[in-house]
Amino acid sequence: MTEPTVAPYGTWNSPLTAAAVAAASHTPTAAAYVGDQIWWSEPVPAERRVGVFRIGADGEPEPVLPAPWNARSQVHEYGGGEWCAGDDGVLAFVEFHSQRLYRLDQPGGTPMPLTPENAATHFGGLVRVGDAVLAVRETMTGERPTDVVRDLVLVPLDGRAADDAQPVTSVVGGSRFLAQPAISPDGSQLAWIAWDHPNMPWDGTELRVGDLTDGRVTEWRTVLGGTAESVLQPEWTADGALLALTDRTGWWNLVRVPLVGGGPEREPEPLAPGERETGGPLWVLDTRWYLPLPDGRIALTATLGSDEQQLLRPDSSGGPGTGERVRLAVGRSRTEWQAARGDRVLVIDEAAGEPGALHELDLAAGTRRVVRAGADALPDAIVPAPAERDFDGVHAVVYPPRNADFTPPAGELPPYVVFVHGGPTSHTGPMQSRAIVYYTSRGIGVVDVNYGGSTGYGRPYRNRLRGQWGVVDIDDVVTVVRGLAQAGLADPARLAIEGGSAGGWTVLSALTNSDVFACGASRYGVADLVALLQGTHDFESQYLQGLVGPYPQRADLYAERAPINHVDRIDCPVLLLQGLDDKVVPPAQSQMFRDALAARHIPHAYLQFAGEGHGFRGRETIIAAREATLSFYGQVLGFEPPGVPVLPLAS
């Protein structure tokens, strides 16, 4: 056995290149049983699109939806539910560039339009309903991004609506936002989630149920939820019971919702109570945290940091929460239930020891198989062992440097990069992320922080950020890195921070409000709160009312918290990366911060990417961004990463 080479942290040779990181960015995004086949969607970075695939005769993935067709929705900008298919093999999907609905009858064939050409109309959250598709429709009514109305619609699959020969049927509206529609087994009722500004769906939503007549809701009522209760994912069971998720106890839990009667019996019946989350932030329209099975059992996620996958058999005779729960798996992350067929269940998830993948569970046999992996498994020699840690009440996942071919000089402590997730109402668990291993295999530690405001730890932890964005998130990331340094795990002089979107905001805020970081890298981060308030898309246009405070009443907070107003406090290099097509955090945010850095002669680099929106998807962009960030860290933290182009820094 060869002895490891002694080399400083950050200089270790790694087999994981930036090109390999980009090539592995194809974790499935959705899946379904179609006849006796499994279909799924996944990003194709080399083609800048999302395709739909199945397993071909040779055992390898083959396209159902061929290039250049791109199945992506722009509803709420984050989309979700971009396609659906029935056992007849008919695929309905949203084409990204036009946002029209299309029908594809044969894999690899030519799609047929189902809706008129109208750039002002977007569709998402597709559900197959007989000979039609039920969808969320978003219609722009003016020039401002907030000039928009939404409703649920039925689109016939025969193409009659493509040229307005038969108008698309508006099923129901009545609120600013609608999501997750579900039709009862007998077709008589529709359940859906509704909410209005200034709430986000994790703040307060309503579960509404309406009677269906000729494809329209004639009358509806709110059966659960309100402005201070988040209700998610209504689902009907085979016997006509309505299930949903609610956080009224402080934790998103699964309940059965009574639809008749009055008095105390109208309280929802807890099916799986506990201080774990079955639920999360509804950023995309088709997210499922549980899945009713044909025999009455329910597959569900129970999250406390990492995910526990459970199988519940509700006991209708034993009282609330007395059903049998069987643990299917522990230590999972990003669990998304997809579909069931008998005892077989499709789920997309990942874990510390394996990359994200579409799995099929056979509940009868107790087995799990990979249908489509998001990447090839990495060599064990470079995969770190993550540890879930608590630093004075702040949750984080620590990934120490690991590469069996190298060892550091005696006494050297490693540099560490803080990962700050977006949202800010998001969550991260232990996983085998190539973006993380790209660093750790080179001798750079990573700590992924679930700061206050993150989901996965109950509503009180989530609410720590209300009115405190730019305060609590900064305090928490600083608490974590100081804890690492005090424990002798990280070099306190070589701490960096990176994040995208809301995570980019925390990067810039931390650099302007603390002195613990040697540098920071912001991807499409927020710099000016007022500019964001006035220029972002409708879905998040009033998000800041809860994160910061009412505007203009608390304009002082918006000015005080904004990093753009405190560039004079920065005394370390900054890297800015920005997509020029970003409608969530427009390019002006990064550009104004770049100009402020240049005016003060602070070392920096600004990279902009044409054709990229909120989140980088193109292969060349992913490579360029990853290599630039590594070179940036090397220059600032005092090491020379091998095989990476040097990023020029301006000042």
Considering the chains and any ligands shown, give keywords for the structure:
651 residues; alpha+beta; 8-stranded mixed beta sheet; 7-stranded antiparallel beta sheet
Please provide a brief summary of the model:
The chain has 651 residues and is of the alpha+beta class. The protein is built from ten helices and 37 strands.
Your description of this structure?
It is a single chain. The chain starts with a strand and ends in a 14-residue tail after the last helix. Helix 4 crosses helix 5 (502-513). Strands 29-30-33-32-34-35-36-37 form an eight-stranded mixed sheet, sandwiched between helices. A seven-stranded antiparallel sheet has the order 22-23-24-25-26-27-28, with no helix packed on it. The chain contains ten helices and 37 strands. It has 651 residues and is an alpha+beta fold. It is 15% helix and 35% strand. Strand 2 (30-34) and strand 3 (37-44) form a beta hairpin.
